[in-house]
Structures are given as structure tokens and as C-alpha cells.
Amino acid sequence: MKRDTSPHAAGRPAASRGIVQGLVYVFEQVMPDPFVLSICLTFFVAVLAMLIAPSGTLPTLLDSWYTGTFGILGFALQMILILATGYAIAEAPIVQRGLRALASHANSPTRAALLVFPVVAVAAWLNWGLGLIVGALLSREIARRVDVDFAWLVAGSYSAWSICNSGLSSSIALSQASHGNALNLVEKATGHVVPLSETIFAPFVFIPTVLVVVVMTAIFIKMHPKAENVVAFRQSGEAAADAPSDDPHARASSETSLAARLEQSMLGTLLLLALGIGYLAITWHKEGFDLDINNTILIFLMIGLALQRTPIAYANSIRRAARQTGSMLLQYPMYGGIMGIMKGTGLASMIAKAFVTIASPVTLPLWSYLSSLIITLLVPSAGGHWAVQGPFVLPAALSLHASVPRTAMGVAMAENVSNMLQPFWAVPIVAIAGIRIQRVMGYTAVTFAVSLVIYAVALWLVP
């Protein structure tokens, strides 16, 4: 096909591609491996805390770092299990056929973006873990069939996922709507919960959420690299094989042995399904329907078992998932230590208070949003972030008679934005997709800039 060399071909889209390729180059040259980056951030936060934090003494800093590092391990395992169980679901034959059927509709970069953004955004809005898994594996299926730049496609999936903190799995919105929740700071201060109708279903939240998806779809279509700059999935050389042929756990003994029959029997699957379904049925009957992290893991586990059918098939799938999520074992403790330093030394509270002191009833949600952008880059976990920032912005909202839901969701919406520069949550999606993170973050920097403006305007102007 002859390339268009007319004057009209050198317009704004080409210029935008040049800017994006420049960003990709910068990230590839400057951004180290995420683990190394987390070490650099730890050092930066430690020095900053020692210099300006109200309790930045060396003993406090070391104790806070140690407490945070090991205090996050339970949460880290929960996150890894969400991704591993989600991976096992997505790897089931029936789901793979569904992903292939979806991917077959994408026969060009434009159609790929038009497919990936709404599918991943809906999945992420329903559950952030599901969105990560669907985004990574759908990207791989599309990239096998279409000549697209793989980093561009994975970055589009991650950008679509970014709206998750405005959805049904938003830990900030859910905790403020849940009676007795440990992080329901609104109920502790006022005796009332904040229903979801005032947070994730409020116009100031769902309008910018939809806008981000629509606008970024259009921008990503324009950002696709020129043909000579495309690095396809097959050329990246980093994608892991789907199913290893040399499985070290493969059984060498006869398939008719007792052990082999147990592995291939569905009785083990049925037993675990009975236990899980029974627990959820009794709990939801007594306490009403509720989804938390542990329930989500259990549901993902049961769905994966049912789709994989036999215990050995499920175990093999989880082993393959573990190879993709292994890098998270290092990431979570490091950021737990950073979170511990910021909270224990008072650095996070100092940042939040600095913004709160200059706020008015009208501007407090926006200042909450801006301070959250900074804190999220160092504490990339919505629940842990709210535990740090919430105790300062919430009393300010009550004393200034500012909107409590808007102030709280300002924190959550900033999480969506900052995640596009903070590689913490990108680690699992790029690991599963099989690509270096630096090329992906070059594209998501554009998502950061665009969504930063969209959410800020919504907080300011949308009722």
C-alpha cells in the first residue's frame, strides 16, 4: 500500500505521534526497573521526612519503615491472589475462546482501541482486579492478530483501567458506604454513611469517568506510531509462552495411578465449590450482599476452578500465573515501607494539611484532589492512602461545611490520575502481557495529563 505523502499527511496527528515517541524515549532512557524505582522513592521519602516531617527522627523513621514493610504483607498476598485467580479464569479454554472471538473484531489499530477501551473500562469499573486481567490478556490476543504497536495497546488497556477508583470496587467509596467499616471515617465523625449514590453514581464522578474513556480512546487512535516505528507483539521478544511444554510438575507416572486419578478427578473441584458457595450463601443471607477483597478472591477461585474443571489443570494455571506476578513480591513491601515512613513521621499529614489550610468550602475538594496527586505517587494504594489522608481532609470538610462526598472522591479520582505515572499497578499488567514497562509509561503519561484536567474540571464545575 502506497504511503500518503501529501501535505495533509503532515498535520497534527503526526506531531502528536512525535511528542509521544519522545515521551516513550525519555521513559526508556530515564525510568529504571520498578523495583529500583521503589528503592529510589524510599530514599527520597526518607530524606524528605528527616528534613521536614514533624516526627522525622531516625528511630521513628526506621521503626515506621519496618512496620510498613511487613505490615503490608497480608494485603500484598491478597492482591497477588486476585491477579493469580483472575489469570486462571482468563486462561480457561472457554474464556480464551471468548477473548479470541472479541479480538477477531479488531483488524486495525483503530478498531483495537475502540474494542479495548470500553471492554477494559467496564471490567475495571466492576472490579479493578478483573480489569487488569482482562486488559492484559485481551491485549495479547489482539496483538497476535493485528499489526499494532504492543506497548501502545497495553498502555491503552492500562489507561482504560485507570477509572477503577470511580467504580464499584473503589475502596474509598465502598468504605464510606459500609456501616462499621474500619476506614469509614465519615461514620466515625458524623454517625452517618455516605451512600454510593452520592459518590460513584454522582454526576461529578460518573461524567468525568465516561469522558476519560471516550477522550482517551480518540487520543490513543491518533497516537499509534507510524508503521516504521511499530514494535509488534512477536518482535518484543518478552512475552512469556502461554503453556510451557517442560512443566517441572508434570507427572511421569502412569495416568492410571491413584495420584493421577485424584489430580484429574472433578471431586476435589466440587468439594471446594461446595465450601465456597456454602460460605457465601450463609454469610450473604445473614449480613446481606457485600463484596470485599477476600470475597472477591473466593469468587475468582471458584469461577476458575469451575472453568478449569480439574484440580491439576487449575494448579498448573496458577503456577503459570505466579511467573507473571512474581515481581509484585518485591513491589508491595517496598511501597509498604514508604507508606509507613509517610504516616509514621507525619509527612503525609503535613502535605495534606498544607493544602487544607488554604482551602474554602468551595475549593476544598479540589485541594484534596491536588494533594492526593502527590501522595498517590508515594502511597499507590487507595485504602492505605485514605487511611493517611482521610483523617485530615474529612475534619476540614466538616469544619468548613464543604461537600464530604466530593472531598472524599477527590482523593479517589486523583488515584485514577496518578496511577498513570506511578508504575506500581502497571507492574502486573505488563508482566502478564509480557512487555517492558518503560515503553508503556511513555504513553500513559499522556493519559495522566488529560485525565488530570478532566477530573479537576468535574470536581470544580459538575454538580
TrEMBL record:
Keyword Membrane: yes
Parts of the chain that traverse the membrane: 35-53, 65-90, 110-138, 200-221, 266-285, 297-315, 335-360, 366-388, 440-462
Domain of life of the source: Bacteria
A GO CC annotation given for this chain: plasma membrane
Record-linked Pfam families: SCFA_trans
Keyword line: Membrane, Transmembrane, Transmembrane helix
Name of the molecule in the record: TIGR00366 family protein
